[in-house]
């Protein structure tokens, strides 16, 4: 699971043409490498020098020439190939294309079709940039400097550790060996098969051979680590952390032990490796978490729970991330997408399955209603002109990284959930079992998944699902009701829901729509091109579509239906309240309904207590507030928002009550954080008081309040407060704490402190893998994205030097612009040289520019409407 940096800003991606997809075939699988030479087994032996930061490697690759030829083309990036020779002594001439990240080996004679063994000797660097094989420097809780060796290969960075066929369709086995200082603990996908002394304080660790898998799933981590031990269903488990912090991995290990038997049963295929380890990487880890088969890696704050410093939400997050990555051990590792165009098969499924497992073992988390936020995130991207189909055309690796977004993750999960609800959970599970067994140790496409589900359901699953995966966008279901003969007659029609798109391509979906009166049994109909009519007994009951929000579509009601729902709004289920609020706000953003349609629902929230409803409401209130930035209406709107949240804040208070339920503990910081950002004077003053007490005594501020208090203090900081936050950030040894301080610093609104933040970004204090998050936070939370952009523009090249320069990741300039609503900044991002360096950087720039244009349009339409509405609704 790679977490896209700009997903949180609701940014967007290029459109691609929908296409019908075929089942997996190796010969026709997309990719850049020729399939005339195919690897079968790698034996890789590396010696990293953690002082000189260099790597020496030797590998023997069993491969097959599918036809006679005199050359083989494989991937490498930044390596120096010293010698490449076949088993008969044929020495290759090596030609390297650094831009394409390939090496072509040309042999002095034609090589016969069949099996051969290729040996390669090579060297390379070990950089600090968190991609490929890299080093991670950190400090222990006692302040002792340590260095860890880490790998992160997804999407295409295995080629930075060894030359190979670094595309997902080229599956092979791997036998990895490494020579390291003897005091370091080394972990890879498989258990160590043999450890022998290697002289001069070194040891040689040979790991057992893996099953067939793709290169991006190989892993190696070595450092001063210790673990807590466990097992489940015959599989050994170790949860590793820097020595001294291993006990903080106990909760993640518990989640792992719970999940493994559950997954074994659900997928119908027992986890095939002898062990499954979890590894916490301190600080410098960009991906968030990664599903390396048998050796899952995490940034440490996504895996370690410290009761003294971790917030309640951290526990929930850890359980979900562990569940997500474990789901990948089947969906992604055992069965792998054929090419990055189907990355959603990995990420969408693991997102859905991660929540399913989290909900199964933690019903108090109220997981499914709270997935409304994921729906909104996906739809926020999917409605814009530059969205893309779930199954998009990926031309190269730079473009592949852009597919790790809300469309692949959140929309993909929503489509899986909708299909499961449509065909029933038991039938869906049976289809997944067939899919896993049919494609284990191989690759698959979406067509393969639909075929297995269709066979289990005896329905045309592909005919429904493909309308959501092979074309972009969101369907909008129109609900019109009338009454005759004592019965309600409901007519459903559809069109495409789009935002800031003057000419959206007309599209039609096959939509499983749930419809009915709240509290009564719902009906499900399949809405396609033709209108669908539904007759319901009685005319008085309000009609709600998308009951339980199991479907991926927006809904627009005629005026009578909307008014009827408004009258019973508090009686709707919480998820349906959130769904109705989300749709009404989105209809305004799309210029399909007045903002008053949303605002008129807000008075009913006085007394609201549900976390899903408040999370949705706070997000939309904050969006309105950003649109009002600098206008006379902003002060009055903030006062209204503060008053709206006041009853809920009174219920929650600043401090938890004994035995308080989990959801109150999670909601409290959301409400306090929002009140602070809206400028509630009492909340801001109390946050400052608690911060000052915290500086004197860290135990004075409970972990659940640290993030909101620090962000409020950071946003309103003066020079002395900012300096204190900076000192605390540089001294913190826990990644969770360090990132809190960085977030608080980035939120500073004083122009002088925004300049200090820009300078701080160049000091190297922020881990490389977190640097773009810091820049994004400055743009989004400071309230002055224009200044942020102007400061980052002249230092962009220096910031970029902290990152791998491969065109696959967002540029610092794109991150700096993400919070803006200025069309001039959108244009500057699009035309910047860094934005045109590759397909990937062009996509990131287009995402940002489209988000800016949408924010500009929203600002223009919001100010007059809010002003008029507030005059009619004082307080």
Question: Which features characterize this protein?
Answer:
single chain; 875 residues; alpha+beta; Neutral Protease, domain 2; Immunoglobulin-like; 7-stranded mixed beta sheet; 5-stranded mixed beta sheet; 27 helices; 40% helix; disordered N terminus
Structure, explained:
By secondary structure, this protein is α+β, with helices and mostly antiparallel strands. Among the domains are: 118 residues, Neutral Protease, domain 2 (Orthogonal Bundle); 134 residues, Immunoglobulin-like (Sandwich); 104 residues, Immunoglobulin-like (Sandwich); 120 residues, Alpha Horseshoe (Zincin-like fold), CATH 1.25.50. 40% of the residues lie in helices and 22% in strands. It is built from 27 helices and 28 strands. Strands 4-7-2-1-10-13-12 form a seven-stranded mixed sheet, with no helix packed on it. Strands 15-16-17-19-18 form a five-stranded mixed sheet, with helices on one face. A hairpin with a 4-residue loop joins strand 5 and strand 6. It is globular and about 85 Å long. It starts with 36 loop residues before the first strand and ends with a helix. The N terminus is likely disordered.
